[in-house]
Amino acid sequence: MNLLERYLLKNLISISTRSATDALNSCFLGTTGSIFTSSHAPSCGVSVPATSNTPSSSSSSPDAQAAVQKLRGEMLQGPDFSDFLTGTEISEKYSVEAPSWTEKKRKPDWMKRVVPSGDKYTGIKAKLRELKLSTVCEEARCPNIGECWGGGDGHTATATIMLMGDTCTRGCRFCAVKTSKAPPPLDEDEPDNVSKAIAAWGLDYVVLTSVDRDDLWDGGAQHIAKTISLLKERTEGRLLVEALVPDFQGDMTCVKTIVSSGLDVFAHNIETVERLQGVVRDRRAAWKQSLGVLAAAKKMGARMTKSSIMLGCGESREEVIATLQTLRDHEVDVVTLGQYMRPTKKHMAVSEFVTPEAFEAYAKVAESMGFAYVASGPMVRSSYRAGELYISNVLRGKQDNNSFKKSAPT
């Protein structure tokens, strides 16, 4: 079943098979052009034929045309791609070329970072030093640190704590974390110390993440689960906990250990499209393995599942849309999309800088697929505004998961 047919299914309308790209072009832009044309796909070694706005013979029946017109009318009630992308502008508006590491060329204006500030930010930073906690937010120099730590504007103050040390057994080409076949042993006191510190911190929402530890018999699953359980116990269940976990080499017993720990959001990042998995991620991080972990977590009772996609790695528009649909097919509830940024010259190069308009377009597509929550923007990272009011309300039972959809601002 293609993407357009999925859109129309709720209205009991069936039309002949068309590509997801062609369907989106028809719905959003009519014949003016498309942000999702295959001909502008980044140079990534795959040849994809350009789409056409001329309806095929199989989709030109009166019923099909009426269905598309009806859907187009519904979509026009919200923001329309044609408001900012038309005709020849489209290929230029999707992205701009990324300069080489040595090229003295400024990044696009939308990639400028905001200097973190504010009383909440300053208070959290001081508390972290006092409690001797290490956050991914600081170590990865996240551009959203001020916004996430500062809270306000409908979201709670959030920070991401890294467990199991700073050395990973895998070597993904986009990641700046240190790697080793034999990292130092785990700190057995870490679950107790971290849970005490975070409980004393007084947050409403915390994200726990970790390195991959393929050297451990359970990948560190029990270590992570123990931390979550102690956090819930020491905050009397008040604290909402999101865990961004490894794939545990596909061991579903480890997945079950995490799901049963009492966490609220089970997160595992797919990172990129299927074709680029072996280029972007460590070879041990398989596409089907990651999807299997996410699907299993949901079936095992995870309240919410979440994943993230980086753009600017050499993917095409069609591949991004297909990846979003695949995540929904595996019952993923929350998705984030952000721009890949090269940590050092030793890491994978950026293929392009995707525009804010394109990220907004992807957000609309993802919402229409049925994701409960979408965060899509150049500066968005996997834990971006993780304590968003919508997610918090759903998890606390104040809001039905299907009663409304919401996207984070880009």
Automatic annotation (TrEMBL):
Cofactors that this protein relies on: [4Fe-4S] cluster
Catalytic activity from the UniProt record: [[Fe-S] cluster scaffold protein carrying a second [4Fe-4S](2+) cluster] + N(6)-octanoyl-L-lysyl-[protein] + 2 oxidized [2Fe-2S]-[ferredoxin] + 2 S-adenosyl-L-methionine + 4 H(+) = [[Fe-S] cluster scaffold protein] + N(6)-[(R)-dihydrolipoyl]-L-lysyl-[protein] + 4 Fe(3+) + 2 hydrogen sulfide + 2 5'-deoxyadenosine + 2 L-methionine + 2 reduced [2Fe-2S]-[ferredoxin]
Positions of [4Fe-4S] cluster 1 binding: C137, C142, C148, S383
Domain Radical SAM core: 151-372
InterPro entries in the cross-refs: Aldolase_TIM, Elp3/MiaA/NifB-like_rSAM, LIAS_N, Lipoyl_synth, rSAM, rSAM_sf
The keyword Metal-binding is assigned to this record: yes
An example Gene Ontology CC term for this record: mitochondrion
Coiled-coil stretches noted in the UniProt entry, renumbered to this chain: none
Single GO molecular function: 4 iron, 4 sulfur cluster binding
Cofactor note: Binds 2 [4Fe-4S] clusters per subunit. One cluster is coordinated with 3 cysteines and an exchangeable S-adenosyl-L-methionine.
Annotated GO biological process: protein lipoylation
Metabolic or biological pathway, per its Swiss-Prot or TrEMBL entry: Protein modification; protein lipoylation via endogenous pathway; protein N(6)-(lipoyl)lysine from octanoyl-[acyl-carrier-protein]: step 2/2
Database matches in Pfam families: LIAS_N (PF16881), Radical_SAM (PF04055)
EC number: 2.8.1.8
Protein origin, superkingdom: Eukaryota
UniProt keyword list: 4Fe-4S, Iron, Iron-sulfur, Metal-binding, Mitochondrion, S-adenosyl-L-methionine, Transferase
Listed CDD domains: Radical_SAM
Compartments in which it is found: Mitochondrion
Amino-acid positions noted as binding [4Fe-4S] cluster 2 in the UniProt annotation, renumbered to this chain: C168, C172, C175
NCBIfam families in the cross-refs: lipA, PRK05481.1, PRK12928.1
Family stated for the protein in its record: Belongs to the radical SAM superfamily. Lipoyl synthase family.
Protein's UniProt name: Lipoyl synthase, mitochondrial
